[in-house]
Amino acid sequence: MHRFANPARFLRLSAAILPWSAGATVVLLIVGLYLSLFGSPPDYQQGDTVRIMYIHVPAAWMSLFVYTNMAIAAAVGLVWKHPLADLFAKAAAPVGAGFTAVCLITGSLWGAPMWGTWWVWDARLTSVLILFFLYLGYMALVNAFDSPERGIKAGNVLLLVGIVNVPIIKFSVDWWNTLHQPSSVIRMGGPTIDSTMLWPLLVMALAFTTYFVSVVLLRVKAEILARRIQTLRLSEAQG
Amino acid sequence: MTNAVGTSDRPMAEFFAMGGYAWYVWPSYGIAAAVLIGLLVASVRGLRGQETTLKALEGARPRRRPRANTGNGTGDAAGRPAAGVEG
């Protein structure tokens, strides 16, 4: 793993990956949007509001996926002092927060016509709101220290503590009574959703994933440059 | 797929109406687009800003030794960057 701790090696690798991940994002988004808006039928119960699902569910998956990756990076950063792991968590946080916000807002827009309410304080919605605050708290904490290293360390501890929320979100629809529907894709016994709806869902999820990869590569590069600027300024100040 | 939108049995006006749920469906797609594009633009601009600052800093002073991880042939024998960068 320490092979990738070398920022120069990372920058070469990311320059090779970025055109492919960016291209894949564009293609997948075009296909995904076509399938979501044209290629799939309205739901027999929910009508055209089911099309909100193709944004809402991939965004929800991404909110958990990004947080889990950040928590793994936090563990790697704390245990092995891996510098890129620290930078990854910092770079990914705003993207994860963005996906969580999209999930919450589209959920509200779906809930209003289908449940008759924009919001309920049940386990699923509340635990996702907590996830959103974990992202915001991490971003505030990392930038709250004069020394970036101390901020990153405090942020990593918060990420590891907050990981307890991830299984709570996943299983909240099984453990507690809720308005939110249970899982229909990632469940024991296979998906119960029809393939005309499963495909747009999977393509959009893949598009969001390649989008995340592309933007995070850009942001990690910016973080590496920021570190280099900081080092240059320090050596300048010290003569 | 006979009742899929956009096909001949479902004209465009009906497509935009989203079965009466236009005010819920389109804002969902709009907000997702706004957040994803906003994050992308902010990230690219942030990276450009760091690149400009770094170039200015590196151009402002002669380097004592060539840096292995930025060495792409833009420095002369004395270790000074070849490209003159203002700042």
Keyword list:
heterodimer, A: 239 residues, Four Helix Bundle (Hemerythrin (Met), subunit A), B: 87 residues, disordered C terminus
Tell me the overall shape of chain A.
globular
**What is the CATH C-level name of chain A?**
Mainly Alpha
Number of helices of chain B: 2
Q: What fraction strand of chain A? A: under 5%
DSSP summary: helix tally of chain A: 7
What is the first-to-last residue Cα distance of chain B? 61 Å
Q: Strand-and-helix sequence of chain B, N→C?
A: HH
Rg of chain B, alpha carbons: 26 Å
Got a strand count of chain A? 0
Structural class of chain A: mainly alpha
Question: Would you kindly provide a written description of the structure presented here, covering whatever features stand out?
Answer:
With 239 residues, chain A is an all-alpha fold. Chain A has a single domain (22-237), classed as Four Helix Bundle (Hemerythrin (Met), subunit A), CATH 1.20.120. Chain A is 76% helix and 0% strand. Chain A has seven helices and no strands. In chain A, helix 1 runs antiparallel to helix 7 (195-237), helix 2 (53-80) packs parallel to helix 7 (195-237) and helix 4 packs antiparallel against helix 5. The longest helix of chain A has 43 residues, at 195-237. With 87 residues, chain B is an all-alpha fold. Chain B has a domain at 21-60. Chain B contains two helices and no strands. Chain B is rod-shaped and about 65 Å long. Chain B starts with 11 loop residues before the first helix and ends in a 27-residue tail after the last helix. Classes of the chains: A mainly alpha (239), B mainly alpha (87). The A-B interface holds A 7-8, 11, 37-42, 47-49, 51-52, 55-56, 59, 94-95, 98-99, 101-102, 105-106, 109-110, 112-113, 196, 211, 214-215, 218-219, 221-222, 225-226, 228-229, 232-233, 236 and B 1, 3-6, 15, 18-21, 24-25, 27-29, 31-32, 35-36, 38-40, 42-44, 46-47, 50-51, 53-54, 57-58, 61, 68-69.
